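Q: My labmate handed me this sequence with no annotations at all. I'd like to see what the chain might look like in three dimensions before we decide whether it's worth expressing. Could you predict it?
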Amino acid sequence: MALCTLVPEAFWHSPPFTLGSGPAAGSPALATIDLGDALPYAEQKLLKLFGKDDESVQLAEWFKRLQATALTQTAAVRCLGMRNPLPFDSIHQPTRLM
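A: Here is what I predict for the chain of 98 residues:
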């Protein structure tokens, strides 16, 4: 699954180079790109750029579940000796600092 292959001089239709004039002393090569292998790679790179690749989606789902668990666990406050837990909203006093 190489993205770039080298084509030897025998497949390159041009006048031959003299010794010392081409890459690696007279053995010129032409780079080709296989689009069949390059398109899925480009697609994954584009998805990753926008955060829609598999890894980013799984991370977002994990974080969403973590937040839901944290919200459930902190919805009520229970101290030692209390009969019933108090909802967090009833005891929270937001600050007015900016």
